[in-house]
User: What shape does this take?
Amino acid sequence: MTDAGRTYTTEELMATIISREIKNGEVVAVGTFSPIPATAGILAKASHAPQSDVYILGSKDWWPFSEGSFEFFHAAQRGRFDYFFLSGAQIDRLGNINLHAIGDYKKPSVRLPGGAGSSMLYYMVKKVILFKTDHTVRTFVEKVDFITSSASPPPSVYRPGGLHIVITPLAVMVRNSETGFLELLSVHPGYTPEEVQANTGFELSFHRGQCFETKAPTEDELKLLRGAVRQEVANIYPSFADKAFGPKLS
Amino acid sequence: MGIPFMPVRGVIGTDYPRVRPDFKIIRNPFGDDDILVVPALSPDFTIIHAFRADKFGNCILNSGTDDALLAKSSQKVIVSAEEIVDSKELKATQRGNFVSRVHVDAVVHLPGGAYPTACGSIYPLNMAEMQAYLRAAKDASAFSTYLEEFCRRLQNGGDFS
Assistant: This one.
């Protein structure tokens, strides 16, 4: 979608925010149904992080594992990945995610697909980015109905990794390391902190007392996105590539 | 692997232990942390599709899948294969993952056995067929009609691509 006066799509903005987090040489792993993080990894590699390794599940060209998912999960348990991307039908104030059920687990109003590896990956990948393509009071809740994976586990469990940032179509959130609560880091151009709060089911403080405006994609980023990056993404996620990118820039 | 359980990182602090009483939290006997252990899975049967196999059950599977792991954890393993070749030719195969006859109980020559999903570079996933399957699977009688038609089509030498 492109709002009046805006020169980029929401997908392009979210991918750009993620891409800027990736430093050259870091290892980025992308799981199932994650076209925005896949776009971000490809963009980072095509621009400021050419020596990064980017692994994209479901793509022959971007998946160097020969022994299947258990090889991938073992590599994650060994701490080989700097970035992984998770989402949830619900995300709560503590950064817990729910991929299991809405309502009571035994009598759910909606049964969800389950967590796959997320209950391990959230602990073992150095920097986990949560991404959500909608931002509403139904998805950002005070407390999830089922904790599929936790950003605040007990100290008795080994957890070298954890939550880095949360990215939505409206804003970027980050965890306060003392309270464990998600806080507002930046609001995307065209939105206000009040709008973000009105669409969030828990109280959002400004991180360190300040709220920034998210930097919009630059012309260079959009050129790359709509050129070489889009072509790569189309090989993996053809229907996403059809609608997520704006018109090609000359 | 033939062992009764496996430790898994993470998970402690989630709701899994609440709904999965077979998952246990133990003290790491070699460290000073708590760790989750899960019981071994050992299916009665595994049926996997190979690019090629020899008559002894040695086979070449699509790399990047968990098929070899499944074969090594099951009680009985049936391999279906696009083609049966002699052992020398099988050993010379460059692509895919080799699984030894040690893990295999039976071999079936079954060209198109992965259809309508993909079989490596031999044939791609057939999206139209998958969508027809998904539509039919919503309803039991529609599905049995679909299944009959699907089997008849393949028995009559259907095209797998």
Summary: Helices of chain A lie at 10-21, 35-46, 69-77, 118-124, 193-198, 219-236, 238-244.
